[in-house]
Write a structure and sequence with these properties.
Oligomer: single chain
Bound molecules: ligand T4K
Low-confidence stretches: none
Order of helices and strands: EHHEHEHEHEHEEEEEHHHEEHHEHHHEHH
Largest sheet: 7 strands, mixed
Shape: globular
Distance between the termini: 23 Å
Helix content: 40-55%
Number of helices: 16
Number of strands: 14
Strand content: 5-15%
Strand order of the largest sheet: 2-10-9-6-5-3-4
Structural class: alpha/beta
Radius of gyration: 22 Å
């Protein structure tokens, strides 16, 4: 039966969820284990400065990713800053505007200049052909972002970087567990940076990892993350405090050990979302590349208003009223955020049509261990119902009659 406006919480009905269903609800796969580890750290009286849990976490990450060096940090943003400093990057850094703002802020705070490049409409990652057009004598580096965990053309970008003798680095904040041609991300470019923020597939409350196969760079990164100390009394380079603490390592280690459980649950959820939404006109569900591994964490829809009859923004209002905290990641695009929009000719010298389109049409839906199959069916039924009477809803919203 065709739904009516009155069935939606936005127009007065009871919300479908009593408890808010959040994008980014943290995964806590083994609470007892995490608490036991934290308790042991408290008993040891060793809480930070490269304690045994951080050491074990780094070794586990190295082994899992098949990489020589995994350097644990307090978060991914500071990790990116440390990496930019250690690579001596100056001048312009070519990067997407279609990313979380931290990618650009890390460069800007290190006095490099973010220069935004458009993305591929299918992968949502940097378009190498456009990167090539933006390279100039002022280019200091290329920063690829593996958005939604999708590999950002490692070989193509590496070729452009090598030809122009500039470093390539990756913001892999969302990509822990993704592979490219069977190789875990973490081994591409000069180095890569993962996030273990609470909202990520694997979390350490807050945390990050810098990965590299370069021994000398790893040595510089370790020192720079610890005030530049090379031993107790000797400071050999500038540095900051980017260290991971033991409580974060306890959580990070526990997350890492439970990765299969988390990724499997995410994958199943993505399959349920896809099954429910695959025949809905105007909705595209983003999938990781076929044949590769992924953390399957981000449930990303592209909403085509011309086909759906309802805009992404109205859909967000509908879902929010029902208790579903869906997010407009990454509206309005970093190039439209004040620190960068103020100087458009510097930061966005070329138009970014794909970025503009995606920032108006993308919606992130809840995923993770706390989201059940029946939650997903309800979320999808709200979306399908809203689309069925899309123009009616838009007319009421336009008339401000809510
Ligand atoms: N590069 C990229 C590509 C990234 O995506 C990120 C982080 C970074 C770099 C930087 O990494 P870190 O320096 O953070 O390690 C959230 C996260 O804070 C951010 O880490 C993440 N990207 C981004 C995609 O999402 P917000 O501004 O959306 O956070 P917030 O507070 O609105 O939370 C998101 C949702 O999660 C809400 O619905 C509430 C829910 N939530 C959140 C927390 C923290 C919970 O239910 N429980 C919680 O504990 O940025």
């Amino acid at each position: 039966m065709r739904p009516s406006l009155e069935q939606f919480a936005l127009f007065g009905a009871k919300p479908r969820f009593d408890n808010l269903l959040h994008v980014g609800r943290p995964n806590v796969p083994d609470k007892e284990c995490a608490i036991r580890r934290i308790s042991e750290a408290l008993d040891r009286r060793w809480l930070s400065n490269h304690g045994p849990l951080v050491t074990k976490f780094e070794e586990s990450a190295q082994e899992y990713l098949g990489i020589k060096h995994a350097i644990a940090t307090c978060n991914a943003t500071i990790a990116l800053e440390v990496l930019i400093e250690c690579l001596g990057i100056t001048g312009e850094v070519i990067m997407p505007a279609w990313t979380f703002v931290a990618s650009a802020h890390a460069c800007a705070r290190m006095k490099a200049t973010p220069v935004f490049c458009d993305v591929d409409p299918v992968t949502h990652c940097l378009d190498p052909a456009m990167v090539e057009q933006l390279v100039s004598p002022n280019t200091g580096a290329i920063l690829g972002v593996h958005l939604w965990g999708t590999p950002c053309c490692p070989e193509e970008l590496d070729q452009i970087a090598s030809q122009n003798n500039i470093p390539l680095l990756f913001d892999a904040a969302q990509a822990l567990g993704s592979t490219h041609k069977g190789q875990y991300l973490g081994a591409f470019g000069k180095a890569e940076v993962f996030s273990l923020h609470a909202t990520k597939a694997l979390n350490a409350f807050e945390g990050g990892i810098i990965t590299t196969n370069d021994n000398q760079l790893a040595d510089r990164l370790r020192r720079a993350s610890n005030f530049g100390f090379s031993n107790y009394d000797t400071v050999t380079s500038p540095g900051t405090n980017a260290k991971m603490n033991e409580a974060s390592a306890a959580m990070g280690l526990t997350s890492l050990e439970n990765r299969e459980k988390i990724f499997k649950s995410n994958r199943k959820n993505l399959e349920v979302y896809s099954k429910e939404l695959q025949t809905v006109p105007g909705i595209r569900v983003i999938h990781p590349p076929k044949g590769e591994q992924s953390n399957f964490h981000y449930i990303i829809l592209e909403i085509d208003k011309r086909q759906c009859g309802i805009s992404r923004n109205t859909l967000v209002e509908i879902l929010t009223a029902e208790g579903v905290i869906a997010r407009r990641y990454f509206h309005p695009g970093v190039h439209r955020m004040q620190p960068y929009a103020r100087n458009k000719s510097l930061h966005a010298p070329h138009p970014l049509p794909q970025t503009e389109k995606l920032s108006d049409s993308v919606l992130a839906l809840p995923n993770g261990l706390t989201v059940s199959e029946s939650d997903i069916e309800i979320v999808c039924s709200i979306i399908k119902g809203a689309i069925e009477i899309g123009s009616e809803i838009e007319n009421r919203v336009l008339a401000n009659d809510i």
